[in-house]
Specification:
Layout lengths: L9 H7 L14 E9 L2 E8 L7 E5 L10 H9 L3 E5 L13 H21 L6 E6 L2 H9 L8 E5 L5 H7 L4 H4 L9 H5 L6 E6 L7 H10 L5 E6 L7 H5 L1 H15 L4 H10 L2
Parallel strand pairs: 3-4, 3-5, 5-6, 6-7, 7-8
Antiparallel strand pairs: 1-2, 2-4
Helix pairs in contact: 3-4
Length: 276
């Protein structure tokens, strides 16, 4: 088990986590809330946005300044393009309780995946699972994608980071005083080196918080034979979707369809014969 004790210090945690307590927002159509028990007395408040029980399911880890409630409109676009979206979260965010730490974040990522797998089985969802992480959430997605024994079919990263030290310094952490090294942190670069699942990395060309070079480092280090790196021209850290528009969701769906075989020549030919 990885030791995160050096990075789980108040000076670091208060800058990298920004938990926002919120009540549940009204549920959009075809969505429902699910609580994941991660330890005794601690639950994560999650939301599952669905379009079809046979559609692929994205297990989504959001950024550090976001909550589940923020994804209602975005989820609609995923659903429109034939993807189910399961938005999980971190302790202390939204209607979750507990206090976020790096150690709990990494452990809870696996618990979220285990919960989703069981829930899908019990409720007859048959689509394949893809892990996706945005910004801080990229560390969670890479964590579970690096585990060979789970059923995740592919990895999607938006605005992710390879190295935590430059980001920590930009956020105001006195790295030298805390004696932090990359090995003490998320260690995403080392973890992605052992990822063999197909990987799709998206990054904004003008990202002012996490340089596009960080996305390039993840791409270069990734151990997958099938890996893609898409730079969105003109986009900064928080304008990926507004800049790319519908194309953002189209490219993610194309990646997923390639992995699942949904856009294979035989499947397209079969659909054509059926007049679909």
């Amino acid at each position: 088990m990885t030791d995160y004790s050096k990075i789980d210090q108040p000076e670091f945690l208060q800058l990298i986590f920004h938990p926002l307590v919120q009540e549940k927002s009204p549920l959009p159509g075809n969505s429902f809330d699910l609580d994941i028990a991660v330890e005794e007395g601690v639950t994560l408040g999650c939301r599952f946005y669905t379009c079809d029980k046979e559609a692929p399911v994205i297990l989504y880890f959001h950024g550090n300044g976001e909550t589940v409630n923020d994804h209602n409109e975005i989820a609609y676009m995923y659903n429109k393009h034939g993807m189910n979206l399961f938005v999980t979260t971190y302790r202390g965010y939204g209607w979750s309780n507990g206090t976020p730490t790096v150690a709990s974040m990494m452990a809870d990522a696996q618990t979220s995946l285990d919960f989703l797998v069981q829930y899908m089985k019990e409720n007859e969802y048959t689509g394949q699972i893809f892990a996706m992480g945005r910004s801080l959430g990229s560390a969670s997605a890479i964590e579970i994608a690096s585990k060979k024994e789970n059923p995740v079919k592919g990895l999607i990263i938006e605005s992710g980071f390879a190295d935590i030290i430059p980001l920590a310094e930009k956020l105001g952490v006195n790295v030298a005083e805390l004696g932090l090294t990359e090995e003490d942190g998320f260690n995403s670069k080392a973890k992605i080196e052992i990822v063999e699942r197909p990987t799709f990395i998206l990054h904004g060309q003008k990202d002012e918080l996490i340089s596009v070079n960080e996305g390039g480092k993840l791409q270069a280090a990734c151990g997958a034979r099938n890996k893609q790196f898409q730079i969105i021209p003109g986009a900064n850290h928080n304008t990926m979707i507004s800049t790319a528009g519908d194309l953002y969701f189209q490219t993610i769906k194309t990646f997923i369809d390639t992995i699942t075989g949904a856009n294979s020549w035989r499947k397209r030919r079969k659909a054509f014969k059926k007049g679909e």
